[in-house]
Amino acid sequence: QSISGLGEKKSEAAPAAVIQPNVNRVVALVTGGGSGIGRAVAVRLAKGGWGGADGRGSNSPEIRHGKHFLGKTLRVGLVLAGRRSEPLEATKKMCEESSDVAIDIIAVPTDVTKEDDVQNLMNAVNTHFGRLDLLFNNAGINIAPASVESIDSDDFQRVIDTNVTACWRMAKRAMQIMAKQSPQGGRIINNGSISAFSPLLKM
User: Fold this and answer.
1) For residues 126 and 132, what is the distance between their CA atoms, to the nearest angstrom?
2) DSSP 76
3) 67: three-class secondary structure by DSSP
4) CA gap 63, 42 in Å, rounded
5) Tens digit of pLDDT for each residue in 72-87?
6) How would you label 123-157 residue by residue, b for 16+ Cβ within 10 Å and e otherwise?
7) pTM of the predicted model over 0.70
C-alpha cells in the first residue's frame, strides 16, 4: 500500500527545470531502495564518481574519441523510492554515512504500481533537483515456486503489475524528464531476476 497519502489524490506533473550545461551535480533515482540490491546500489551511488548523460563527473580515466578523459567528481543527488518509509530512511542514513562527496538525499514512499504515486515521485524529483541522470528500476516481487496451472490469477497479475507494467511506467516518466533537461538525456537500468536466464524448479 502507498504511504504518506501518495496515492490519495491526483496531481499534475511539474514542468521540468532547465539546468545549464555547467551543472555540477548528477541525480539518481532508485526504486526498491529500502533493502537488498536497491539499497546496495544506492550506497554505491552515494559515494559519487559516476557521470551524467554527457560524461560529466567521472573520476576515473576513460577512453573517448581516442583520448583519455578525466572529469571532476560531482555532487550527488539521490532519490530513494519504495513502499515503506522506515527502510528508506535506514538506507538514507547508510548513504549519508558512506558518501565521499557532497550529497543530497530524499526518500519518497512510493507504490510503483500506482500511476498517481509515480507521478508524485517524479514531481518530487523535479521540485527538489530539476533533473534526472540515472533511473535504477529495481522494484519487484515474486511468488512462491509453483506449477503454472496452480498459480492464482490475482498473484500472477500482481507480479506483472509490479515487475513489468511499473517498470515501463517508471521508464516513461523518467524519459519525460530526461528529454527536457539540459544537458539532455540520461541512463535507465532495468534490474530483473536471474530466473529469466535460469528458471527455478516449478517456475
Assistant:
1) 8
2) E
3) strand
4) 26
5) 567 899 999 999 999 9
6) bbbbeebbbbbbbbbbbbeeeeeeeeeeeeeeeee
7) yes
* Of 15, 39, 32, 13, residue with least CA distance to 166: 32
User: What 3-state class would DSSP assign to 13?
Assistant: coil
Burial 42-81 (b: 16+ CB within 10 A, else e): bbebbebbbbbbeebbbeeeeeeeeeeeebebbbbbbbbb
- Tell me, what's the pLDDT at 93? 97
**Tens-place pLDDT, residues 2-58:** 333 344 444 455 444 444 444 678 999 999 999 999 999 999 999 988 875 455 555
Q: Please give the C-alpha separations between residue 98 and each of 102, 104, 178, in angstroms, as whole numbers.
A: 11, 13, 27
